[in-house]
Amino acid sequence: MERSSRFYRCVNCGEPFSYLNVFSFAGEVEAIVHGTCEICADALADAMAIVRDGDEQRDNQDNDGPGG
């Protein structure tokens, strides 16, 4: 990780960035821009996908009601 990065630790888990939690160039960009390691970024993305899927299911149920 470059020393010019404004983050040296993940803002979510607090672990320092290293080869143990930043695996790819995209992960390094994520760390530099957002301050999260790849492990936490992936976990947050998964959590957002679950919430989004739940919202879509509720929207579909609302539209299936009477007159909808």
What would your notes on this structure say?
The chain is mainly α. The protein has one domain (1-68). Helix content is 53%, strand content 0%. The chain contains two helices and no strands. The protein starts with 24 loop residues before the first helix and ends in a 5-residue tail after the last helix. The model has no long low-confidence stretch (mean pLDDT 80).
**How many distinct beta strands?**
0
Number of helices: 2
- Secondary structure category: mainly alpha
Binned, the helix content reads: 40-55%
Q: Give the terminus-to-terminus CA distance.
A: 53 Å
SSE pattern, N- to C-terminal: HH
Strand content: under 5%
In the predicted model, the low-confidence regions spanning at least 5 consecutive residues are none
Q: C-alpha Rg, in Å? A: 18 Å
Shape: elongated
Most strands sheet: none
Domain count: the total is: 1
- Residue-averaged pLDDT: 80
Secondary structure topology:
Blueprint: H1 25-34, H2 38-63
Summarize the structure.
The protein contains two helices and no strands. It is mainly α.
Brief descriptors of the model:
mainly alpha, elongated, 0% strand, 68 residues
